[in-house]
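lol ok so funny story. i was supposed to be doing the assay writeup but got distracted and ended up predicting the structure for this chain instead. priorities right. anyway since i did it might as well share w the group, maybe its usefull for someone
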Amino acid sequence: MKIPYYISAAVAVAVLVLAPTASAHVTLQPEEVTAGDFTRMDVRVPNERDNASTTKVEVRFPPGFLFVSTEPVAGWNAEVSMRKLDKPVEQFGERITEEVDRVTLTAQGEANAIGPGQFQDFGLSVGVPDKAGTTLKFPAVQTYSSGEVVRWIGPEDADEPAPLVQVAAAEPEGGQAAAQQQAPAGGEDDDDGGSNTLSIIALIVGIAGLAAGLAALFMRRRTTVGTT
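and the output, tada:
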């Protein structure tokens, strides 16, 4: 049975109306990093308001980030705040007594703010904590020119979730590369062994053929002599 077009249109409209709208929120990109690695991360800030601009973003860091540097963004000021470690650690021959507490990004005048329908990436260079298999949480606070403050600090399924980043284990040193390098060597050895075996077999077959030929010739000569 063919469904009338007006019913199909009504169903489509209902689906669009009832479907949940996924709101963009402050995130850190990429969403997975390698434990113990030095890498780039971006604070991605979309503007969700039609009547206001984003003028400030503050991102709090979980424990373990000892190093961070910020990429300059025209019209924005970046400030890194540190907190004291409970126990100093040694890194690259230096005694480290502080870790990253937060990064605060502030527009220098509303003209440089993130306007409606826009987003901005703020680049960071960080030393990732050696915590493979964990999920790092970066609570963020977004301030609008209207004075509204949105706190992205909730769980993953909340309306205002905090940015999350997964920490993956690093590949064993030389693991995959070594295997790839050894494979051709092993293949060459196998090829050489195979070639040697074939050569020996061919030599044996050749000798057997020669022996058979000589035997046939000898028998023929004996037969000829006996007939004579």
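The longest helix spans residues 175-227. The radius of gyration is 36 Å.
back to the writeup now i swear
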